[in-house]
Amino acid sequence: MNGWVLAGTTFLASSVEFVEAATIVLAVGFAQGWRAALRGTLWAAAALAAIVAIFGPLLGNAASLARVQSVVGPFLILFGIGWLRKAVWRYAGRRSLRDEAAIYDRELARLRADRERRLGFAVAFQGVFVEGLEVAVIVVTFGAAGARSLAWSVGGAAVALLVVAIAAFALRAPFARVPENALKALVGVMLFALGTFWTGEALGIAWPAGDATLFAIAAAYALAAAAIVAAMRLVDAPA
Amino acid sequence: MKALAAIFDFVTGGSVAAPLGTLAAVLVAHFGRGLAPAALATAFFGTLLLTFLASTLERAR
Fold first, then answer.
1. pTM across the whole model
2. pLDDT of A147
3. Is A202 in contact with A62 (CB distance < 8 Å)?
4. Which residue in the set B40, B55, B61 is minimally distant from A81, CB to CB?
5. What ipTM was assigned to the predicted interfaces of this complex?
6. How far is A179 from chain B (nearest CA, A)?
7. pLDDT, tens digit, for every residue of A57-103?
8. C-alpha distance from A234 to closest chain B C-alpha (Å)
């Protein structure tokens, strides 16, 4: 499996989740001080790194690649369907688009109203941990795809963390202009396609064009998602 | 029960169609071994495509 595909997908998935986590961390920082915000962030990052460090090599050292793929493939399918269908709902207007600026304002008001300083640490920890958990699972499952896969997937997530952290530090404001839904749709398509490809391989399916079939599968899922969005918009359009 | 529901939601995003359809695709691949390779790949992929469709329409408001 191409390392760049793994790294690119974990980079995109991580970017989306880290942008959401950054909104919470920034709110904590401005409302209750940067010490609590950074402590919560670092503890959550350490907990996520521990999950990847423990479970990544564990899966990677499993008996055979086919056996690993048969376990992680269905998980990627489920995660992919979850990401993609939410993106479809948002594009179709059946679910509101995530508004980072509004979430930031709400968190800021809630934290300023609370006088308990420990809340800041807890909110930052929870925000980063919850948003990062799915990324940690994705990184671990991608890491099981073969030799050096874990390095590629961890690398993608690490670069995303660095980019979002630098941008958050530079802007000191929520990322209101990041095209989150487009990124989520893209990640959903890639997770779904990779899950389909790996599960099929593990079950003995001979994909017609080998590894290149992955991109055909991804294109088909993207087209299907676009068709569902168009159909939903048509149904919902006022007569 | 609450913990199980939370794990189910985390893995499936709250969809019932997604895990059932994935299971159906695995069964198609398992029991369809006698089919031609291209037909088996198409059946497996088609089942997952339908799963996505069912999951998306499952709770679309």
1. 0.82
2. 66
3. no
4. B55
5. 0.91
6. 21
7. 776 666 566 777 788 889 899 999 999 999 999 999 888 877 788 88
8. 14
